[in-house]
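Notebook, p. 212. Picked up where the previous page left off. The plan for this session was modest: take the two constructs that came back from the sequencing core last week, fold each one, and keep the raw output in the notebook itself so nobody has to go hunting through shared drives later. Recording the first one now, exactly as returned: residue sequence, then the structure token string.
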Amino acid sequence: MSATTPATPPSQLWYVRGNLIDVRVHSTQVLTALSRGELTLDHLAMFGTALNDTTTSLRWLLDHPDAPQAHDLVEELTLPEFK
């Protein structure tokens, strides 16, 4: 990518808030199902997808801190209600 080419964020970036919540929810479901002996591939797939989408977004944010989308999202994620 050249210096004049704008950074194109991944599509997952627009859902990072929901994906962060999904990682939390699905990890709890995985642990609960594991403790009951009811863990399925579906539980793991849902957790893995949420984790992958979240890390893709956060990795892009770290790699492109000066992009307008990154700046807006970082400001939004550091609001008191997200802390």
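Okay, moving on. Second construct, recorded in the same format:
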Amino acid sequence: MRRTITLLAPVTAAAILLTGAIAGPATADSTVTLNLYTEHHQIGDVQEVPVPADESCVELETTIGSLSAHNESETLTAELYSNSSCTGTPVEVVDPQGKVDFSHRHKVGSVQFIRN
């Protein structure tokens, strides 16, 4: 009987790890956002921008006048652009896990997510 438990334990552990590896990250990725706020100190109206799985430009449906931001991503930096195409010079940059108050209100139309 003891031999059976020993043989099943690695298979069970592998199955649990495999299930966690498949289900865990998908759930976590779907909730990670860049939050753009209309007021300083991450308060006021908020526009949540879903963080993509990899580097890409995300066009906002509507532009927002933002005074602060919080980037929940652990790996991607967010470059904020006033246009809808992530071109030119970013108006602000928010590091992974960063919270930033801007010196003045920025019109944000798109966000380029990049790896450091």
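Notes on construct two before I forget. Strands lie at 33-39, 43-50, 56-71, 76-81, 92-94, 99-115.
Flagging for discussion at group meeting.
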